[in-house]
Amino acid sequence: MQLDLGRVPPRVGGIKVYSPEKGGRDPDELMADVDVEYKGDMDVGIAILGVSASVKDVHVKGTVRITLRYLPFQPLFLCQMSNSDAQFSNF
Question: What global pTM score does this model have?
Answer without folding.
Answer: 0.59
